[in-house]
Amino acid sequence: MNIQLSKKPTGPLAGLKVVDLSLLLPGPLCSMHLADMGADVIKIENPRASDASRVMYKSESGVPGLFMMLNRNKKAITLNFKRDKAKEILFKLLEDADILLEGFRPDGMDKMGIGYDVLKDKFPKLIYCGISGYGIGGKYVDFAGHDSNYLALAGLLHQSGDPPILGGYQLADVGGGTLTALSAILAALYSREKTGLGQRIDISMMEGSLQFLSLYAGIFSAEKKVPQPGNAVLSGKLPNYNIYSTKDGRYVALGALEDMFFKTFLRQAKLESILEEYPYSEENLPHIERKLKEYFLSKTLEDLEPIFQNQDSCLTPIRNLQEVVACDHLRERGMILEVDHPKYGKILQFGSPFHFMGTPTNYRLHPPEHGEHNSEIYSALGYSATELELLKKERVI
Question: Mind telling me the catalytic residues?
Answer without folding.
Answer: 146, 173
